Amino acid sequence: MREHDFENSFDRPSRRKTKRPRFDDEPAPNRGGRMTEAERGRLAQLREDAYVQDVPGGADRWSTWGDAEHGPSPRPGWVLTALAAVDTELGVLKTGKEADVHLIRRGLPDGSNETLLAAKRYRSDEHRMFHRDAGYLEGRRMRRSREMRAIETRTSFGRNLIAEQWAVAEFAALSRLWSMGAPVPYPVQRHGTELLLEFIGDDDGTAAPRLAQVRADDDALKELWYQTVAALELLASQGLAHGDLSAYNLLVHKGRVMIIDLPQVVDLVANPRGLEFLERDIRNITSWFTARGLPESETDPMALVTDLREVAGLP
Length: 315
Prior knowledge:
The chain has 315 residues and is α+β, with helices and mostly antiparallel strands. The chain is built from 7 helices and 11 strands. Helix 5 (218-237) packs parallel to helix 7 and helix 6 crosses helix 7. The protein is globular, with a radius of gyration of 23 Å.
């Protein structure tokens, strides 16, 4: 997994006075005769515009595959790895508090090979604070104290670091869960704070509905319940819980339940609040199925918690 190198790269061979390196979240010093920040920004935009103009077929960018962290093997055959591929933005699938999900088409410029992907882009300094990020970051330390200080004080630089940590966490969780056969989208790649994921939906770009949007008859509702329980049992067998489960982060595609939104997957043993998160997940999902008409005898939340604790090997 490719991550930031937090080793101190400043070489100090002697004790002579050296210039203090500027932190990334500090404003650039204003020195006479140097290029201004406004001019730097203008030149950067000119370079970016020239780069975009070179992208063929009206696409928005070249494929970022060559610079990204890749998903687990065996890689599905539909994943397009050609560096000559281009990405075209097709619209927004979902907006959220911490990330937005876009639909993109990655394909060769001549149209001979194309695939749809969901691009999940975590926000950085645009949001106030990530949902429960304090609990997630507890115990994590950067090798440089300035990174931890930036995170703790929520500077712009610190929020960028938090955003990337969430992206890294979700990509790792999806890779692990997909590899063990869980019903999750295949994680194609991570590039900074952007995840490219398997698009769950139809070939025309219509996204699969969330469970909360599904209207099912009794038999179909029962089948969706059994699939949900089976997915939770699979996670529990690995000592995991979703951590933020609801009918809004389960998709239903062609009758199959798929789990999404997984940056906060909880280790039931290592996390001191693991069982608390598990019980909340179960309360949320069982109450939804019960409200839709599934008998309470089948959706007893405490019975399901007991079963999942047993599967996880917990007392």
